[in-house]
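Reviewers of the previous submission asked for a worked example of the structure-prediction workflow described in the proposal, so we include one complete record here. The input consisted solely of the amino acid sequence. No template or homolog information was supplied to the procedure at any stage.
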Amino acid sequence: MIKNLLAYQEKDKERLAIVASVEGGRVKREIDAANQTIEDAKNALLSLENDAKNLAVLMQSVNKNLTETFGRVEQYDKSSKTQKQTQEHLDELKSAEKYGVALSEKVTGYDNQLEDLAKRIHGKVTAFDDMKIAIVNAQKRVAALQPGYQQAQKEIAPKLGALDAELSKIAGTVDRELFEKYKHRRKSDKSGKITDIAIPVSGGRCGGCHHEMPTLLIHKISTDGYIICENCGKILYK
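From that input alone, the workflow returned the following structure tokens.
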């Protein structure tokens, strides 16, 4: 039962190695890195655009407050002139002067806020431009690398076609339940390494993770032809 699966496994590993030589090669890695740069830059652009909008709204609010405060300053100036001409009570004049100082401080505060907002918006715009340049450069990099990657795919296509035919033929001779377990384990392996899914038991332990297998489970190999490691899910045989 296990013999046919092992034959399938060897061809499967051969196919995986050929695919990995292209999909895991330098060119593909550089393409993936460039595409990731594009994706990250696009997300950054959206974030920068949102930040700039928020800063613009804030600036508009500060400008409004500044305009309103200037209006109060003008009213104060007109009122203080009248008071200096007609006001007879010194305490009222002092109160008016304090109000004028407070308004002046508000104007200065709003001016400082506007200056800070202008700098922050300028920083966002500069970063926005940098992100756009990064996207263009990454897109050029992808365009330059893509032909080589596509050529490599074409070169391995005949080998993969031949192996697929062999794999299909061998698969028809493997026990269906066993074959499904193999495919499931291969698919669930996210390590990126080309490893054996079906491996021999070694000294009563899994040949993969070295987990000690119960004796009763080991005995099942004699009747079923294989067992599944209860720790790592590998297919075990003798």
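The first helix runs from residue 2 to 23. We consider this example representative of the routine output the project will generate in years two and three.
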